[in-house]
Amino acid sequence: MINEKSLISIGKLSKFARVPRSTLLYYDKIGVLKPVRIGKNNYRYYSFEQICWVNLIRTMQFLGMPLKDIRGISERRTPEKILRLFSEHINDLNSIVARYLDARKLMLTLQTTIENSIAVDENKIDFIYEESANIFLGQQNDYSNGRTDWDALPDFYDYCEKYRPNINLHYSAWGMFSEERIKKGDWKFPDRYYLNCPDGGDKKPAGW
């Protein structure tokens, strides 16, 4: 026997689950979420436990699951089926979250680069203080036999692929010159390339 005090109206469910009343009526119509009891004047009453189920339905919709599939789960749900469903979608969510975090790191890095570059005069050497940063440092560039920076740059990307096959190559590639060469005015081709990458594994020290 249902304890009437343990039930809530569709209005209260709408408020507690933060979904429109019209959505709950639609869920009832298509069989995704049925009220526990239909009272006088066709009033719908739900259990407190159904607040959680409403939020789960909304979450599964957000993840792209059609309502007809959610209805099938609702009609034949068991703890084992729900656990299997959660396991599948948690794996998907982990991948999505990782991609968003990678995108955020990339945009923040490029944002800082652009902000630091706006006032730079490309016709002269500037001294700018920069904080320590993570990078991925390439090997010494080979300029023998008439090779140029356009030969060295593909070598650098090959080096990235070989030693850090999972590194994100969407970050900017930068050139690094020795202090001695800069003092001599020789900065035609960089000594090394590096990725300005937060997950690079190498450390560029703070300084000018």
Q: What secondary-structure arrangement, pairings included, does this model have?
A:
Elements lengths: L6 E3 H8 L3 H10 L6 E2 L5 E4 L1 H14 L4 H9 L3 H39 L15 E5 L11 H15 L9 E4 L2 H5 L8 E4 L6 E3 L4
Antiparallel strand pairs: 1-3, 2-3, 4-6, 4-7, 5-6
Q: Could you tell me the mean pLDDT?
A: 87
Largest sheet: 4 strands, antiparallel
Total beta strands: 7
How is the largest sheet built, in terms of strand order? 5-6-4-7
Characterise this structure.
With 208 residues, the protein is of the alpha+beta class. It folds into 3 domains: 4-71, Multidrug-efflux Transporter Regulator, Chain: A, Domain 2 (Orthogonal Bundle), CATH 1.10.1660.10; 78-119; 121-204, no CATH class. The protein has helices spanning 10-17, 21-30, 49-62, 67-75, 79-117, 149-163, 179-183, and strands spanning 7-9, 37-38, 44-47, 133-137, 173-176, 192-195, 202-204. It is elongated.
Features:
48% helix, three-stranded antiparallel sheet, Multidrug-efflux Transporter Regulator, Chain: A, Domain 2, 7 strands, elongated, 208 residues, alpha+beta
How would you briefly describe this protein structure?
The protein has helices spanning 10-17, 21-30, 49-62, 67-75, 79-117, 149-163, 179-183, and strands spanning 7-9, 37-38, 44-47, 133-137, 173-176, 192-195, 202-204. It is an alpha+beta fold. The chain folds into 3 domains: 4-71, Multidrug-efflux Transporter Regulator, Chain: A, Domain 2 (Orthogonal Bundle); 78-119; 121-204, no CATH class.
